[in-house]
Amino acid sequence: MPKPEVVILVGGEAGQGLVTVGTLLSKAFVRAGYDVCVTQGYQSRIRGGHNTYELRAAVHDIAAPADEVDFLVALDETTLAADGPALRAGGVAIAAEDAEAPAATLRVPYKTLCPPRYANVAAAGVVGFLTGLPQETLVGVVEDAFHKKPDEAAANRDALAAAYAWAAANGAPFVRPLPAATPRPPRVMLNGNVAIALGAASAGAKFCAFYPMTPATGVPLTLAAHARTLGLVVEQAEDEMAAVNMACGASFAGAPSLVATAGGGFALMVEGVSLAAMTETPLVVVVGQRPAPATGLPTRTEQGDLDFVLHAGHGEFPRAVFAPGTVEDCFHLTRKAFELAARYQGPTFVLTDQWLADSERAVVLFDVDNLLPLAAYLPPASYPTPYRRYEITADGVSPRLLPGLGDELVVADSDEHTEDGHLTEDLGVRKAMVEKRLRKWEGLRAAIVPPAYYGLDGAENVLVCWGSTGGAAREAAAALTAAGTAVAVLHFTQVYPLDPPAFLPRLVKALRVIGVEGNAGGQFTGLLRREAGFHVDKFITRYDGLPMTPAYIRAALERLIAEEVS
Q: Phi and psi dihedrals of 334, rounded to 5?
């Protein structure tokens, strides 16, 4: 009986076209009705180095990468040595006929099948045949990709045809077909960065400033590619300090604004975050996490910046921090961040990571026609005159007018200020202003996105996770539950502020609560203890630069339970 899923790992040097192979196959699997999850591994260089493109395709829904590989497509010999151990029993390595490879490798004569520049497309064709993908499906993907270049489309079609014919004649022992997939609604391939950009655009973003920094650069680049159509401005600043201050200035003038960066760049932005808080200026900050300190592993993944984002900026002021767990979350929570930034006039954060930023998924098209429009700026219906930008109010939110768009004078100050915006050192006014700003907490708490619970009510074991680890945790929990160990998942996509009554009862009832995080110190479980008084003393952590996988979590939890029993 055919396996319900397949894992394909394409390896090679940057510039060899491994992304082309992976993209052709992933889009073809999506068109054939399968669910897919793509994980990209790349080194911090433009050419060379060892890069990988892992594609997991299944007839059922999947939400995480895998550890073992069914097909290893080696575009260079380094891949055979570096990734060969990941091949599961019965897996197949595919390499050029002149490569120094193990005897079990399927050796493909790329040089006789097609011109050298199309060898990667031929590799996609071989894998397509071995996995049972219809040739016409891959051809359709190629024709869509090169519809403006008919000669290129023809050459790619020829390479695919030659590869399918050769595989049909020579690849019979290596065929591992997937079962037919159930028809699904139309879907598109998106990664987290693109979804964040789309969420920002749908929320009415009009300005984005950035300084390039992996893994967040895809957000502004996506916005820049569509800036004319969307009517927004994307500015590559000279550094991160300039970027955040530009965004504050644009937002002060009425343009909903965001910045996108990684931990090292955000370190330079924190003074600007405090500026947005003191001037009560809406600002959305996207932070793509990667291993640190310093430059760390700039193209790998981690969840190590939660504590940093929670405490970034001097002084006390409200903030909301979202941690998307899926590509869909990236879209919707970015909209939510813009909504709260505008409503409560201050900074909000979208905390993602390299795996989610670059992980491509098959996503049902967002129903943007039925999304409620976000009021990025609405002038107050009424306000006392003379106008006071920082009027002390019951909910902490003052009437916001834009400078130059009316008769009223708008005065703002980054020092402590009076209600009308002028600098002050009156200590009584200072106390009143701090309390006014902090009253916004109540509104932010009322808008909290609660954590999602997956699994049996009253499960003995509860995995607590946040952000991108959610998919791997859910798959691991489902597998363990099916094997007789009841495991549930409590997954947080908003990590601050928290609403303890919404989740504490589930944690208190569990026999074991295990924190699952992509960092070494259990940062979110520390936050749980601080905010909810609940102490987690068992952890599954990963901080080697690789994403969480279901197998990693399952093995770690089984060890924890075995150690406790013994």
A: -65, -45
Rounded-to-integer distance, Cα 339 and Cα 334, Å: 9
Query: 261 and 408: one domain?
Result: no
Q: Are 295 and 464 in contact (CB under 8 A)?
A: no
Percent of the chain with pLDDT over 70: 99
6 φ/ψ sector (left φ>0, alpha ψ -120 to 50, else beta): beta
Q: Which amino acid is at 383?
A: Y
Domain range spanning residue 357? 191-370
In the chain, the amino acid numbered 152 is E
Write out pLDDT tens, residues 324-362. Answer: 999 999 999 999 999 999 999 999 999 999 999 998 999
* Rounded Cα distance, 398 and 401, in Å: 10
Asked if residue 233 is part of any domain, the answer here is yes
Per the DSSP assignment, residues forming a β-bridge with 8 are: 55, 71
Domains held by the chain: number: 4
Distance CA 56, CA 363 (A): 15
What counts of helices (H) and strands (E) characterise the chain? Answer: 21, 20
Tokens (6 digits) for 518: 């992509």
CB 332 within 8 A of CB 199: yes
DSSP designation for 180 = P
Contact 142, 121 (CB under 8 A): yes
Q: Can you say how many angstroms the Cα of residue 238 is from the centroid of all Cα atoms in its chain?
A: 26
DSSP string, 73-86: EESSHHHHHHHGGG
User: Mean of the pLDDT values across residues 180-196?
Assistant: 94
CA distance linking residue 25 with residue 141, whole number of Å: 9
Last residue of a domain, one of 419, 447, 475: 447
Q: What is the CA radius of gyration of the chain?
A: 26
Single-letter code of the amino acid located at 163: A
Contacts of 531 (CB under 8 A, 6+ apart): 497, 498, 500
Res. 104: pLDDT tops 80: no
